[in-house]
Amino acid sequence: MKTQIGVDQSLARKYNSATILDHLRLHAPLSRAGLAKYTGLSRSSVSRIVDQLLSENLIHEIGAQQEKIGRPGTLIELNPAGGAAIGIEIGVDFVSAILTDFIARIQWRKHIDLPDEADLAAYLDASEELINQALLESKTCGLQPLGIGVGVWGLVDILKGEVRYAPNLNWRDVPLKRLWENRFGLTVFVDNNANAAAMGEYYLGSAKNGKDVDDFIFLSTGIGLGGGVINAGQVFRGWNGFAGEVGHMTIDPEGAACMCGKRGCWETVVGSRVGVQDYQRLTGKEVSFEELVTRLRAGDPASLEVFTKMARSLGIGIGNLVNVFNPRCIIIGGALEQISDIMLPIAKETFQKNSLIQSQKDIRIIPSTLGADSCVLGCVALVLDEVIRQRTKLS
Ligand SMILES: [Zn+2]
User: Which tens digit of pLDDT belongs to each residue from 204-225?
Assistant: First the structure.
């Protein structure tokens, strides 16, 4: 990230200011001297960039600290008043919104439930109502909106910001970015819900502050099973952006039919719907997923059998992922996160039998710390990441 001879100067400046903002995100408060030491940039480069970022209001000075040698240095950190980020999660039967300041502190939030029969127009209306409310709130807080991050439960073309296919919402080719950039005059980032949630964990959750966790996989468990792969601190997207669809890894070619049209995908054996179906097959009783969890906690043997089987399937899939990606960490979010104390020990045992011993070294399989908020906070992280690490010009 340091300036190199021959590199376009404006590009180098952008990289260097991203480096400084990211170091402040991770290690603030820091003095100019501390920033130079951490980043390897020259003192004069640091001073020039810090002046620029101060003028943009993205950082602020918070007093002096005596350095070991020389004059006291003024400490700097990210400025909470540097702007507002809006996050919108569009899930099956709901839309959820959060407004945060520049250091991701929640200023306002709202959740709207939608009926089963809600069509695209109903989802768009609810989302736009929430965005309008968030914009009003940001005005009240005196925060300039920096952008809108959107996480959708489906396949997303992130360059165009279009939802290609969302089977559970019954959406195809919805140009959310174009629609909302025209309507709200702000930059809109649209991503798959699991990718957004992975960014949420990276910025704000289980993998926060780097802490040597630049390589991890977030598993979003619910009706389906999504994945967000973070590789070297960035979402791994693959050739045309659809990487991470881990729920459709084939676990058993002779297995149950999947929503995608194939058989035996991982999400046909791990998820809330399959748990409910297995329980009904076993006992003849029809219960909700929440009731199934309650019964598990109460010691119901049939419920334990269902989740034990599911945990083993979870472990088999994790073993495959670990062999391919060699992550430092696997984070379990979504519906199964609440019973990770019961499921993860079983999953870990199976995973250890099904992955290369070298890849298992020091790996952690842990529950999400953001819980149900991982996606909507991840949407906020999509906006903040653009300002902090990508430094593309925002409207
Ligand atoms: Zn499938």
Answer: 887 665 555 889 999 999 888 9
| Ligand 1 geometric centre to CA of 265 (Å) | 5
Omega of the bond leading into 29 within 30 degrees of 0 (cis): yes
Tracing tokens 């058989």 back to the chain, one arrives at 263
Of 220, 229, 152, residue with least CA distance to 191:
152
Domain harbouring 68, CATH code = 1.10.10.10
Rounded to the nearest whole angstrom, what is the distance from the C-alpha of residue 6 to the centroid of ligand 1? 48
- Average pLDDT, integer, range 291-309: 97
Rounded to the nearest whole angstrom, what is the distance from the C-alpha of residue 58 to the centroid of ligand 1? 44
The answer to whether residue 276 scores a pLDDT higher than 80 is yes
Same domain as 164, residue 100: yes
List of long-range contacts for 161-164, beta carbons under 8 Å, 24+ apart: 161/188, 161/189, 161/190, 162/190, 163/190
Q: Which residue has the tokens 């070297």?
A: 232
The domain spanning residue 272 has which CATH number? 3.30.420.40
Residue 3 lies in a domain: no
Q: Report whether pLDDT(52) > 60.
A: yes
pLDDT bracket for residue 361 (50, 70, 90): confident
161, 265: one domain: no
Tell me, in angstroms, the distance from the centre of ligand 1 to residue 371's CA.
25
Do 196 and 241 form a contact (C-beta atoms < 8 A)?
A: no
Residue 187 near residue 395 (C-beta atoms within 8 A):
yes
In sequence order, which ranges of the chain are alpha helices (DSSP H)?
9-27, 32-39, 43-55, 120-140, 176-184, 193-204, 272-283, 289-297, 301-325, 340-353, 357-360, 374-385
4 within a domain of the structure (yes/no): no
Ligand 1 centre distance from Cα of residue 40 (Å): 47
- Say how many domains are in the chain: 3
pLDDT at 280 over 90: yes
CA of 97 to the centre of ligand 1 (A): 29
Neighbours of ion ligand 1 (CB under 5 A): 248, 258, 260, 262, 265
Separation of CA 203 and ligand 1 centre (Å): 30
8 Å CB contact between 377 and 336: no
**Residue numbers of the domain that contains 187:** 83-199+375-390
Dist CA 3 CA 16 (whole Å): 7
Q: Encode pLDDT of 56-89 as tens digits.
A: 999 999 987 765 555 678 999 999 999 999 999 9
395 domain-assigned: no
